[in-house]
Amino acid sequence: MLEGHGGNIHEAARIAGCLPSGIIDLSSNISPFPPSRIIMDRLKEGLREISALPEVASQSLAGLVARRHNLSEGQVLIGNGTTELIFSLPRSPGSRSALICAPTYSDYADSCRLSSVETRFLFCRKEENFEFDLRRLRTEAGKADLVFLCNPNNPTGALVGGESLRGLIRLLPSTTFIIDESYLPFVEGGDADSMLKGDIPDNLIVLRSFSKIHAIPGLRLGWLASSERTVETLRSRMLPWSVNRLAQIAGEAILESAQGGNLEEDTARYMAVERTEFLARLAPLMHGAGAANPLAVYPGKANFLLFELKGTIDAPVFFNLMLKRRILVRDCSNFRGLGSRFFRISLKTREMNSLCIDAMLEILG
């Protein structure tokens, strides 16, 4: 397990000498908006249900997911967060080798390592703004049993167009593609690029998260979709009762309410505006005389921004300087393919973002 994920506000508060509530957390890629009142009310009503076992395989929730996305119930598998699903996938029969499009989320590699699956990395290039190179991917993917691709990618925000990705998957039916769309709901118009559109072949597995867009990471709730045949194989290797009843209730509340879809659309629109305004205020650090610029950005399409420090300060130092101001950012030094000069900021409320910008201008200006 990688030490150094984002969102560790308890450790940050210990270092900063304050309560966790005193930390402005811009390190975790969670929506800035709190869980809806509908979710909170349903959770309160459902507390009495914790005295009984939850549904063994979250069947009711799977049915609601299927209806929302025009799938059959047999195409959906609910998990204790996408983490449980990610770690279960390399255990599938015939999974001997994996290709991971990097830099990216560390759990893909960790899951392969724990299942003794040989792993290779296909690194996106900084000089190409960390965009995915589908020609290189086509060549390398054919040599692997599994391909992990986060779309849009964490931490770069790079997004592959849906039609291009579907075409690649059709060309390589012997390779299983695991496409993590956890951050796609934050992208305005992102549904057009989802692999959930149209038929899902046996060699495609799509991951989705309730936690991030609906701000309920503490409940641990995610799901995947594939063909019925692939899902049945995966289900046979899942633990029973892996999703607790309160998480099931929260997911059902989201999908039974029309507000669930509206919230996602509103959040995506907010992110598009906030990304533009955030970068406009940081322009003095990025525009100017060549090498004198202390900062470069790889903005991507998601709800976070990847930055590269160009001056004498590296990411670990910058992390500590921000933490002294009780602002937590993501030091990306431990992402394969990045290094000690990269950090990530997750966009939050206008007030939080403004405080972050003021601190960055003070430190780097």
Written overview of the protein:
By secondary structure, this protein is an alpha/beta fold. The chain folds into two domains: 9-30 and 282-364, Alpha-Beta Complex (Aspartate Aminotransferase, domain 1); 37-259, Type I PLP-dependent aspartate aminotransferase-like (Major domain) (Aspartate Aminotransferase, domain 2), CATH 3.40.640. It has 13 helices and 13 strands. The chain has helices spanning 9-16, 37-46, 59-68, 81-88, 107-114, 134-141, 162-171, 228-235, 245-256, 259-281, 283-286, 315-324, 350-364; strands at 24-25, 76-79, 97-102, 118-123, 146-150, 176-180, 204-209, 222-225, 295-298, 304-309, 327-328, 330-331, 342-346. It has a seven-stranded mixed beta sheet with strand order 2-8-7-6-5-3-4, sandwiched between helices. Strands 9-10-13-12 form a four-stranded antiparallel beta sheet, covered by helices on one side. The radius of gyration is 20 Å and the shape is globular. The model has no long low-confidence stretch (mean pLDDT 93).
- Number of separate helices: 13
- Assign the structural class, choosing from mainly alpha, mainly beta, alpha/beta, alpha+beta, or little secondary structure: alpha/beta
The helicity comes to: 25-40%
Task: Name the CATH homologous superfamily of the largest domain.
Answer: Type I PLP-dependent aspartate aminotransferase-like (Major domain)
Shape: globular
By CATH, the architecture of the largest domain is named: 3-Layer(aba) Sandwich
The first-level CATH class of the largest domain is given as: Alpha Beta
Sketch the topology as an H/E string, one letter per element. HEHHEHEHEHEHEEEHHHHEEHEEEH
Provide mean pLDDT, rounded.
93
Give the radius of gyration. Answer: 20 Å
Low-confidence stretches: none
Total domain count? 2
Major sheet attributes: 7 strands, mixed
Q: The CATH topology of the largest domain is what? A: Aspartate Aminotransferase, domain 2
Lateral strand order in the biggest sheet: 2-8-7-6-5-3-4
* Terminal-residue CA separation: 36 Å
